């Protein structure tokens, strides 16, 4: 099937609400002292406990292009590989292979030529992937990287080919041109406006290594690209275009699917801390977003402040903050409530759209609450496509809710939060594994029973005491009754 054959790509939403999430004191330094709330700075926003919310494997402009020291001269016959649809591939040796899974994959991998593709669904592909971005790099480009998507092109981080038609060249490395001249690579395109990127990489042959990228941006389909690669066979070659050894049998899809090239690129972390009203239980105090998808930048959202790296943003109401090619943010009072008991309260909502190569983008909604009687905290809703290798407190998004259980997530990711070397926050508050029962180790069903019992025992208190919960979970109802 082509990218124009189908229906809607599946997305999923994860919503953070109390008590699975947590609260903060009224300041910005989260020291449980509400009297210094007017002193929030980037420094104070990055000094407490963090837990992994989502860890994913997809990026808009950063893919794993591994270093090497060898650059063999091209040898072997000249051939063509074509990538089209969702996605189908005609390998250099002539086999048709189909790859349907989202992720970043090696299209061509040799010791000196790295060509990778990002495959993701569109609204029309019923969850099947199409090619969203082509990334080219390796020693042949002297460590530089070229990225081509349906609407943008980058040489490293520099936008290129922005006018139509236009050229971008690097002496001794490559020539590129954007125009409307070139063959169609997919059925059903006749009569549509063509936007084609032509790339010639100087590889020491007369022909060069040629890449044609046909861009498609029909609103009814969603954005994607077709790709044609023409090159000489090279030693050690492999990838979704096959190993170019003259034997089409070993290009069969399942044999080459090891060519996944993804590296972690989306990092969403949360700081969980108690407020004066939560009896020692945690709420979400700050959301931190970063990773290669933001090109090393970091976004921090708390109940009263927001920072792009160390720059204060969204200070007026309403207001916007955007970074071209990376994200859009908006602060307003429009959006759904994510927690019971909020109806009628003033809404302050931060909306974030991160450009991840999909039409929908990676969407985050942060509802800010600053009631003096509660202490400050946030609710969070994340809407995104599933990505290979994903994990975190929002689960691994593999279709099996059983392995999203808190105890199973803790067994996979650890019991003490994000490792210091992976932290988006500047400092980490130690999560001490004490020699006593930990409420995080209470099974979900038992903890729900404990909450209901302790609320009733403590006179209908919304958030029961930690002591009662621990007693019920680990010593039983009888012990809790006498506590």
The rounded Rg comes to: 26 Å
Strand content: 25-35%
Strand order of the largest sheet: 5-4-3-16-15-14-13-12
**Outline:** elongated
Mean pLDDT: 80
Percent helix, as a range, is under 10%
**Unreliable spans:** 1-72, 254-261
Biggest sheet, open or closed, and with what strands and sense? 8 strands, antiparallel
Helix count equals: 5
Q: What would you call the structural class?
A: mainly beta
Q: Give the assembly state of these chains.
A: single chain
* Total E-strand runs: 26
N- and C-termini, Cα separation: 65 Å
Descriptive notes:
The protein is elongated and about 80 Å long. Helix 3 (444-457) packs across helix 4. The model is unreliable at 1-72 and 254-261 (pLDDT under 50). Helices cover 8% and strands 31% of the residues. The strands form four sheets. The chain has an eight-stranded antiparallel β-sheet with strand order 5-4-3-16-15-14-13-12, with no helix packed on it. A six-stranded antiparallel β-sheet has the order 1-26-25-24-23-22, with no helix packed on it. It starts with 11 loop residues before the first strand and ends with a helix. It is mainly β. A hairpin with a 4-residue loop joins strand 6 and strand 7 (114-121). It is built from five helices and 26 strands. It has helices at 253-256, 406-413, 444-457, 466-475, 477-481; strands at 12-16, 51-56, 78-84, 88-90, 96-98, 103-109, 114-121, 129-137, 146-148, 153-155, 158-159, 166-170, 174-179, 195-201, 209-216, 224-232, 266-273, 283-290, 299-301, 306-308, 311-312, 319-323, 327-332, 348-354, 362-369, 377-384.
């Amino acid at each position: 099937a082509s990218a124009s054959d189908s229906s809607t790509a599946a997305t999923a939403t994860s919503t953070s609400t109390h008590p699975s999430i947590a609260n903060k004191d009224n300041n910005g330094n989260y020291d449980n002292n509400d009297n210094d709330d007017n002193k929030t700075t980037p420094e104070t926003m990055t000094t407490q406990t963090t837990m992994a919310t989502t860890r994913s494997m997809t990026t808009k402009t950063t893919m794993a292009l591994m270093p090497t020291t060898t650059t063999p001269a091209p040898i072997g016959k000249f051939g063509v590989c074509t990538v089209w649809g969702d996605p189908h591939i005609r390998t250099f040796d002539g086999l048709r292979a189909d790859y349907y899974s989202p992720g970043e994959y090696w299209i061509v991998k040799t010791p000196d030529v790295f060509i990778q593709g990002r495959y993701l669904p569109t609204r029309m592909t019923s969850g099947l992937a199409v090619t969203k971005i082509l990334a080219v790099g390796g020693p042949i480009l002297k460590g530089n990287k070229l990225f081509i998507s349906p609407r943008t092109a980058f040489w490293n981080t520099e936008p290129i080919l922005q006018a139509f038609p236009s050229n971008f060249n690097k002496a001794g490395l490559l020539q590129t041109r954007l125009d409307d001249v070139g063959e169609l690579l997919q059925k059903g395109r006749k009569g549509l406006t063509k936007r084609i990127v032509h790339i010639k990489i100087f590889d020491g042959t007369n022909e060069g290594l040629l890449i044609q990228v046909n861009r498609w941006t029909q609103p009814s389909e969603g954005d994607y690209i077709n790709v044609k690669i023409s090159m000489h066979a090279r030693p050690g070659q492999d990838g979704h275009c096959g190993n170019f050894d003259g034997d089409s049998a070993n290009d069969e899809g399942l044999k080459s699917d090891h060519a996944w090239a993804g590296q972690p690129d989306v990092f969403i972390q949360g700081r969980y801390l108690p407020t004066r009203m939560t009896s020692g239980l945690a709420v979400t105090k700050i959301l931190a977003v970063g990773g290669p998808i933001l090109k090393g930048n970091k976004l921090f959202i708390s109940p009263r402040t927001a920072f792009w790296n160390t720059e204060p943003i969204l200070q007026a109401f309403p207001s916007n903050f955007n970074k071209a090619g990376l994200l859009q943010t908006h602060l307003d009072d429009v959006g759904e409530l994510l927690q019971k008991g909020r109806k009628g309260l003033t809404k302050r909502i931060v909306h974030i759209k991160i450009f991840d190569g999909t039409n929908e983008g990676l969407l985050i909604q942060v509802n800010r609450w600053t009631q003096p009687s509660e202490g400050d905290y946030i609710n969070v809703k994340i809407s995104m496509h599933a990505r290979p290798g994903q994990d975190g407190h929002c689960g691994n998004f593999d279709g099996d809710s059983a392995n999203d259980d808190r105890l199973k997530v803790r067994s996979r990711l650890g019991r003490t939060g994000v490792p210091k070397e992976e932290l988006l926050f500047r400092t980490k508050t130690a999560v001490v594994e004490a020699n006593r029962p930990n409420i995080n180790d209470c099974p979900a069903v038992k903890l729900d029973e404990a909450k209901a019992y302790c609320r009733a025992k403590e006179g209908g208190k919304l958030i029961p005491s930690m002591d009662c919960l621990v007693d019920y979970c680990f010593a039983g109802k009888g012990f809790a009754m006498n506590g």
